[in-house]
Amino acid sequence: MIDFTPNPIALSIGSFEVRWYGIAYVVAIVAGVWLATREARRRGERTDIIVDALIVMAVAALIGGRAYHVIDQWAYYQDHLAQIVLPPYSGLGIYGGLFTGLLATIWLTRHYKVNFWRWGDIIAPCILLAQVVGRWGNFMNQELYGPPTNLPWGIAIECQNRVAQYACPATPANAHFIPLFFYESMLSLVGVFVMLWLWNRFTARGRFLIAGDVGLLYFVWYGLERSLLELLRNGWDWTFFGVPMAQIVGLGAAGAAVVAILIRHWYVRGHPVDALAAEAPPAPQVESQPTPVV
Q1: Rounded CA gap, 39 and 119, in Å?
Q2: Residue 208, Cα to own-chain centre: how many angstroms?
Q3: Quick one: the chain helix, strand, coil %, rounded to 5?
Q4: CA spacing 20 to 30 A to 115: which of 156, 173, 182, 226?
Q5: How far is residue 21's CA from residue 18's CA, in Å, rounded to a whole number?
Q6: b or e along 248-266 (b: 16 or more beta carbons within 10 Å of the residue's beta carbon)?
Q7: What is the dihedral of CA 180, 30, 94, 137, to 10 degrees?
């Protein structure tokens, strides 16, 4: 059993606090940018747009993620409205961030005139890698845990951080819980390697996958991953007729992504030239030379 219970505050200077959750968010972004730069360079895409695009995507994801979390926990925030926007606060809903982040990505690819599907293949494993890191912020906040367990990797959760279902003293103060944050982090890490392997092995002219398949696979992988883990998560869910919204959205996104993959492959069979254009790396930019004066 793991009895360590972390302090969510990493550093305090007067009334100013630096929380581990925020640090995890920043480190997650850095990890995603590193992988995006590496993959873009390897695939012949522009790397100069990544940092500028990151600012737009990070802000969009932060707004969407925060909005989803507030809706999820509205029973609390309706009596603490200021805490929705004023620090210190923590809490982001991944699906809200994905939605607004996707909208930002569509806009960015149009703005920079790059191929949306090729960049989707690059960004998808980067998002998962960011989630691998970011979930440890949940550990520092003592959140995202499952029911009590006797497993050797069960984590301690202090009474003040427990959901009502596992409140003290009904559930003993020395109880340990399933570390769902760790499960999700490790499953996401496996997903990163699977996506990179699939792109390297199967995405090329004449092979099984086409540009955009790996990006769509993210929604299948994470949708199923999150829906499975939601079976162990109780007491703080946004539900719809008793079913957690995270499961509804996750399974819906996974199903929509599978349908999109099938439709795109059906389209490609009838329009192979369009598929080859999407798969081909962009032509290198050649600076025009001034016409010599004779």
Answers
A1: 10
A2: 26
A3: 60, 5, 30
A4: 226
A5: 9
A6: bbbbebbeebeebbeebee
A7: 40
Q: How far apart are CA 173 and CA 149, in angstroms?
A: 13
> Which tens digit of pLDDT belongs to each residue from 238-262?
777 778 888 999 999 999 999 999 9
Tens of pLDDT along 108-154?
A: 999 999 999 999 999 999 999 999 999 999 999 998 899 999 999 99
Cα 290 to Cα 283, 284, 285, 286, 294, distances in angstroms: 21, 19, 16, 13, 12
Quick check: 148 and 175 in contact, CB under 8 A? yes
**Model-level pTM?**
0.84
Which amino acid belongs to residue 72?
A: D
Instruction: Take residue 276 and report the two structure tokens written for it.
Output: 């080859």
Yes or no: say if 245 and 239 are a contact pair by the CB < 8 Å rule. yes
Report cis status (omega within 30 of 0) of the bond before 179. Answer: no
What tokens were used for 167? 């409140």
Quick one: which H or E segment has residue 88?
none
Inter-residue contact 149 to 173 (CB < 8 Å) = no
